[in-house]
Amino acid sequence: MRNEETRSIREIFTRQETLFILLVIIVGLLLRWLQLDARPIHHDESLHAIYGKYFYTDPNEKFYRYDPLLHGPVLYNLLPYFYQFLDVSKWAGRAMITCLGSLFIFIPFLFRRFLSKNTLILLISFIALSPSLIFWSRFLREDFLVLSSMFLMFWGATIPQAKFRPVFFFTGLFLHFCIKENSYVTLALLLGFLFYEQIICTFKHGKGNRSLLQKFFNVIKTHPYATLAGFIFAAFIFCFFYSSGFRYSEGILDGLYRKGFIYWLHQHNIDRIKGPFIFHFLSLAWYEFLFVIAFIWTTIHFYLKTNWKLQTLIVSGLVLAAILHLIYRNQTLELVPVFNVLKLKIGLDFYLFIFLVLHSIIVTSKHLLENETGLAFWGYFFFASFFAYSFVGEKVPWLSLYPFVAGIFYIALYLQKTELLDRMLTWTMPGGQLLFKPFFFAFLLVFNFRMALMTNFARAGDETEFISQVHTTKVYEQILMDIQKEILFPKQGYIPHVLVLNDAIWPTTWYLFGLEGFNFIPPLDNNYEVYDYVVANVDNETVEKALEKTHFRQVIPLRAWWVPNYDKMTIKNFLVYALTHNPWNDPGSYEVAYYKKK
Q1: Could you give the 3-state DSSP secondary structure of residue 224?
Q2: Closest to 92 measured CA to CA, from 41, 131, 128
């Protein structure tokens, strides 16, 4: 442990460092809260927002009934409170997640007894100014709820008062299961580490050394009543949320085993949103460029300082990847059964797949054998979650959060252990007068601030952004806002009638639900002409034929995205996008037909 663990925060930092940290925190908070409702609502956001609205408008009848497609009930149980106090709006819906994203800046302070001063400053700076963490802090999804529950578990496992550990650990674990089904992934990874650490511990030290599993059971044995109280409290939380406040008892068994696991196991085999195995590496490289540079730097340093056997193993793995890339360079990997099962889609996937398999085992084993349990845990969680979320069928950008957050802590702890960070920050500039430290943190602030502005303000939700896949276009949202205004403030007392069909139902329902004149069910008599506004799929010939004489027809983009042309992804294109977000191939879009009465 560091000397800083026994001192208050004010005693750790100098006046200049304190001012810098305050500046970073203020900038991080502003970037999370300013213009929170400016970006159009994403397809997934609209689902979460509207189901929270159903619960809010009629809590006795329209409470949330667990559906694995929409994940666990916590989000929908909490949203009504934000709607109640802040009104039903995009701002209110996102505010709940933004609160958690803002609190996340302060997470390093909870673990400061394990961190040096420079490591603490680095972590706070990275988290506060992270372009992707800011983006997901302004996005109505469950992932920051998940991260909060995970860190509640981790904090509970490390607090000095052993008798309180089960309460926080079980509460965090059960909350995770109430939030999102990647709880299965988290639990599997956690158990994998505990059992592997037990094996290493037994192999190296025999029965004399206690593993984390043994320590865990020792806490239970030493504090049985506290453990039982923590388990009962966590179980109560689980039952409360899955039953929507004890309104729906069937939800408890649905959440426990009847629905979630089988559903997502099936989804893994569907690949609704396809992407290569390197998807999350690209997402991190293009939105967390400095993090990826630090990751490469620490990886190279790790192997330079290790023995020739491990160096040979990782080099051999990369050579094997190069050979496979060369052999299958002209083939579609998805047509090769074994590669299809492993979710390998392009030649570059071989490198990351083999590297993560080997490196995760090497890093975890080496740190455990050297009694560096903290480094072993965060290194394992970083690389194992990196592999797990690269392996899952559906490639969605918010899953990059999990390896990224674990990676921040691993890299920070690695730099601290090797003293690389301290040595770098004590370099002197030419002439021997100025330290490198202020220039380093100034560069970090400016670089990430620029990227955060681009990602979250200048191009928020744009079709050129890799992070904002299947995002609602600004054109479509503006049309809905105009219709909404016309319904709320009718001209000469006339309220227009609106019909929305097919794929446009989402996100349209969020904007128009509960308003007079809005409908999303096709008329049984095919009398479409009575509607002033109709939105339907472009290929809906029934609607087109019915309205060809009475309505103007316009084709507009509903959603837009950028999927890289991987065949043309050169090193230059890769770096240009990382620094400018200018894509090398045209974005795509999904269009719908918009009809307006003549």
Answers
A1: helix
A2: 41
Q: Where are the alpha helices (DSSP H) in 60-89?
A: 74-86
CB atoms < 10 A from the CB of 345, how many?
21
Residue 7 is predicted with a pLDDT of: 56
Mean pLDDT within 365-379: 95
Cα–Cα distance for residue pair 60/81, rounded to 1 Å: 15
Are β-strands 471-472 and 498-500 bridged in parallel, bridged antiparallel, or unpaired? unpaired
pLDDT tens digits, 507-534: 999 999 989 999 999 998 889 999 999 9
Which CA distances in Å does 257 have to 216, 234, 260, 262?
Answer: 25, 17, 7, 9
Residue 208 DSSP class: G
**Against a cut of 0.90, is the pTM above it?**
yes
What is the greatest pairwise CA distance in the chain? 86
Question: Starting from the edge strand earliest in sequence, which strands make up the sheet with 551-561, in order?
Answer: 471-472, 551-561, 588-597, 533-537, 498-500, 518-519
What's residue 278's pLDDT?
97
> CA-to-CA distance for 137 and 28, rounded, in angstroms?
11
- Distances in Å between the Cα of 191 and the Cα atoms of 164, 195, 348, 503, 592 are 21, 6, 30, 41, 47
**Predicted local confidence at residue 2, as pLDDT:** 47
Element (H, E) at 104: none
Q: 465: which 2 tokens?
A: 């952004």
Report helix angle 74-86 to 90-103, nearest 10: 110
The residue to which tokens 């601290």 are assigned: 416
DSSP string across 544-593: HHHHTTTEEEEEEEEEEE----GGG--HHHHHHHHHH---SS--EEEEEE
- What is the amino acid identity at position 88? V
On the question of pLDDT at 470 being above 90, the answer is no
